[in-house]
Every structure is written in C-alpha cells, then in structure tokens.
Amino acid sequence: MVAAAPPLPAQSRPALDVVLPSGPSLSTDGPLVRAARVMNDTQMRDLLRNGFPARLHYRVELWTVGGWFNDLDRTAEWDVIVRYDPLDRNYRVARIVGERVTSLGQFEQYAEAQAAVELPFRAPITARRGRRAYYNVVLDVETLSLTELDEVERWLRGELRPAVRGQRNPVTPVTRGLRTIFVRLIGGERRHYEARSATFRG
User: Fold this and answer.
1) Which residues contact 163 (CB under 8 A, 6 or more apart)?
2) Residue 154 CB contacts under 8 Å (≥ 6 apart), including other chains
3) Is the pTM of this model over 0.90?
4) pLDDT the model gives residue 103
5) Which one of 1, 12, 96, 171 has the largest count of C-beta atoms within 10 Å of its C-beta?
6) Cα–Cα distance measured from residue 71 to residue 29, given in angstroms and rounded to the nearest whole number
C-alpha cells in the first residue's frame, strides 16, 4: 500500500513535492514524488484537445553530502504521457518507467486526467545506508515532444516499446524547426520545476 503524501496548499501555483519515506525505510524505499497543478491551465487543455500530447519527464537525483562538495550518487527517470483521443472523447494517461508502460486510466473529464497525473509515485531509487544525502527532483513539462514526436505517436498507436526512448524515425531539420517554431507560437515551450528534500541519513 502506498502512503499518501501530505496535502498541498489549494488554489496556489504549480508545485513539485518530494516526501521522504519514514526513518526505517530511508535505505529501502525511494521518496514519494507528486506534481500539483502543472496542467491546471486553459492553454494546456486546449493544446491537448487539438492533438498535442503532453509529456511530463521526471528525474530524481540522489546526492550524498560530503565535506566541501556534494556528489551525485545515482539517478532515476520516468515519463507521464497525457493524450486526448478525439474519437473516444477521452483523455488517456500512462506512466513509462524504463521498458514498462503502465496505464493510469482513461477519463472523460480533464479534471480527472489531472488527478491521475497528480497521483504520488514512489521513485525507483534508494539511498545508501549510513550516508547523509538528499534527493533533488526535476520535472520538465512539454506540450509536445519536439524531437521525439514520431515515437510518441507510434506508442500512442499501441506499440509496447516506450516511444520516448525508441529508435527515432527520420525527421528532417526543417520539419523539426517548423515544429519548434509552431509550438512556441502557441505557447507550448517547456516548463521546468525543481524540488529538494531535506537532508537525511540512510
């Protein structure tokens, strides 16, 4: 059973939350990570409704605390993909961790898709026992995966291999540049968030 993360303040700005496991579990469990309100705007909803899938890319870094410098010990990454299907008129949400794709559901309402995106997730990373450390969490939200759009579309058609990490289909620099310009014109550039946990001893 996954422990619930403490509630985040309502009606506030987008936020990224990282919650450490309880003391005895610090060296066996990863932190709970949750994004709140990162899709809570009309622009994001309109882009999804017009065929632009959203990609939320998470990166969790484990840093060990040293004398003069802190050291990056290890990292873990995963993606959450949100797509609107105009035929079924619903939103599809899935999480991709390595080679594994997990459906988080299909939803008729945008608010329901948001709730699925905001579910806390136990990061697949653990600290070394006996060392002082902290987690740094980075989240990049893209309305459109510019350089990997073709792979995202292949995955959405039902391929099992994670689209954002597969072999790329040929995309010309001109095509890629036009996509970049178009997405920026409609306000779909990357949004970046970071959060850091308290320092702890594993």
Assistant:
1) 81, 96, 148, 151, 152, 153, 154, 155, 156
2) 163, 166, 169
3) no
4) 93
5) 96
6) 20
